[in-house]
Amino acid sequence: MSRSLYRMALLCVLGTLTLLVGCGLTPATRYVTLMPEPPSTTVTIAESMFTPFILVVAPGTAVMWHNSDPVAHTIATTPESTAYLNTLTVNQSIPAGGMASVTFSQPGLYHYYDPTVSDWNADFGRVAPRQGEPHYPMPMEGMIYVTGTIAQLPAHAANSVIYLHDRIATNILAVRTGGTVSWHNYDTDPHFLLPVLGWDAPVNPVDIGINNLLGADAAPPDGETRTITFTTPGLYYYYCQTHAAVDPVYLRAVARQMASEYPIPMEGWVLVSGN
Ligand SMILES: [Cu+2]
Known about the structure:
CATH architecture of the largest domain: Sandwich
Largest sheet: 5 strands, mixed
Shape: globular
Mean pLDDT: 90
Bound molecules: copper (II) ion
Low-confidence stretches: 1-6, 8-30
Radius of gyration: 27 Å
Order of helices and strands: HEEEEEEEEEEEEEEEEEEEEE
CATH superfamily of the largest domain: Cupredoxins -  blue copper proteins
Number of strands: 21
Distance between the termini: 80 Å
Strand order of the largest sheet: 3-11-8-5-6
Helix content: 10-25%
C-alpha cells in the first residue's frame, strides 16, 4: 500500500469512528437535555373529590390534576390570601378525562375548591358543600402544602371558638417554629381539639394530643384557654371530636349533624415554618 493510499484508508477508519461516536452521542445529548424536568405529582379527581385532600410537595413541583370524572371540573383558589396562603391564584377548568398542571414555586399553603360543585361561604370564610354531591357533606376542596421556609411568621397567634357556635374563629393560622397558638373557648359548650390521624409528616409531624376546652357553662365566666407550642415545622390539621368525625378514606373532618355549623366541619390548620 502506497503512503497516500494508507493515509486515505486511515482517514476512512477515523471518519467511520467519528460517525459512530457521533451517532452514539446524539441520543445521549438529547437524554441529558430532558433530564432537568421538574418533579411532578398527581391529584386525582373522582366522584367530585380531590385525592389526596392535602398534597405535600417541594417548591418547584408541577402538580398535575387528572380528571377521571365524566364531567368537567374546575380548580380555583379560595379568596383567602396572606403571606403564606394562596400566593398564587389558580382558576382552571379541566375537561372530563383531561389534565391540568400548575407549578408551585413559593412555600406555603394553597387552598382550592371546585366552584362548579361547591361554594365559597364568605360569612364563614370556608368552602361549603352542595347537597346532592356524592360525598356530601364533604365539599370538593383541597390543600397544596408547598414545603420550605417561610420567613417572618409571628411567634404567637391567638385563636378561639366563637360564642354559641361550633366554629374555630380563624381556620388557617401560621406561626414560626417554636411559636405558640392559643385557643380560647368563648362558647358555652365544651370542645375537644385533636389531630386528624392517618397523615404522614410533614402533615401532623407531632401528635398535639386531645385538647379539652371547657366552655363557659363548665368553666365560668368565659371558658378555657389552651396553648400549644409548635417546635416541629409542618402542617397541623385538627378538628373538634364533638362536632366532627374523620372520614377514614379521605382523612378529612366531616361535620356532625348536631353541630351548629353543619355541613361545615369544625376543623383548622396551623402552619409552622421558619424561625
Ligand atoms: Cu366542638
